[in-house]
Amino acid sequence: MPADAARLQPARVFEVGPRDGLQNERVLVPVEHKLELVERLVAAGLHDIEIGSFVHPKWVPQMADTEQLARRIPRRPGVRYWALVPNYKGYERAVRAGIDHIGVVLSASETHNRNNLNRSREQSLEQIARVARSAVDRGHTWRGYISTAFGCPFEGAIAPEQVIEIADRLRALDAAEISFGDTIGVATPRQVAALCRRLIERFGARRIAMHLHDTRGLGLVNAYAALECGVRIIDSSVAGLGGCPYAPGAAGNIGTEDLVNLLTGSGFDAGIEIERVVDTSRWLRDRVGVTPSSKYFRYASARCSA
């Protein structure tokens, strides 16, 4: 952590690597490796980690062992383990496994929602409402993801009003925060800034997160645009892993090490040790067989071998 960290603005990195990062990997990752991955991320200083999803393994085989992983992860003070649930049944499974930080998702695009979740947006909102009511009653925290918030692989550009309307409905259900996804990585900094300003004015900065993909190389620039507008929660994935099975051509999330490097170089502190994140990406490459795409990892690896 920098010596002048006390003067830096706080920012929160929401780690999605164990879920969004691994879900697209073709080789199934053993639960022991997933457990070590989460432990490494905690050791690096990550406090919000999405460990997996309680989706049927027929749809996402990589997530078949999420329940086992959730039961085995050591609970630590100040560390929040999150899981994505597709419906109320998934929520009940998550609760039985000891998860009390829940993610739900729907798309701004009707076509992507039907392809990704096999239901209409209205049907998704009905499922989310049921999960939300139960979560609030039980004292659980939940966040909503709005996918394809900037563009859809099937419908093209998405109007901001369409995104804000869905966000209004999630907020009315007491979402703790809402993460806006550039699922296929088509957003520009100007688009991100324009939407962020409207969202912050409507919901407040502490409820807004950005979930950005790097398909066209603008992921970090878009993150900076969001930070400049006042957003303080950014989703990222260790090693830059990720993608969406139902978004053709979508690249991975912005890399956690890239995001931490951006934050520390821009006057923010997330309390994360970047070299430990790099070590975790190296471990993923060597032990799990994934290919890191983060720029800072490549820089650090070249520096070590020089």
**Helix percentage:** 40-55%
**In angstroms, what is the radius of gyration?**
18 Å
Low-confidence stretches: none
From the spread of the alpha carbons, the general shape counts as globular
- Tell me the CATH superfamily: Aldolase class I
CATH level-3 fold name: TIM Barrel
Largest sheet: 8 strands, parallel, barrel
Report mean pLDDT, rounded to a whole number: 94
Count of DSSP H/I helices: 12
Q: Work out the oligomeric state of the chains in this entry.
A: single chain
CATH class bucket: Alpha Beta
Domain count: 1
Number of strands: 12
CATH A-level architecture = Alpha-Beta Barrel
Specify the structural class. Answer: alpha/beta
The spatial strand order of the largest sheet comes to 2-3-4-5-6-9-10-11
Tell me the span between the first and last alpha carbons.
Answer: 25 Å
Strand content: 15-25%
Q: What is the chain-wise order of helices and strands?
A: EEHHEHEHEHHEEEHEHEHEHEHH
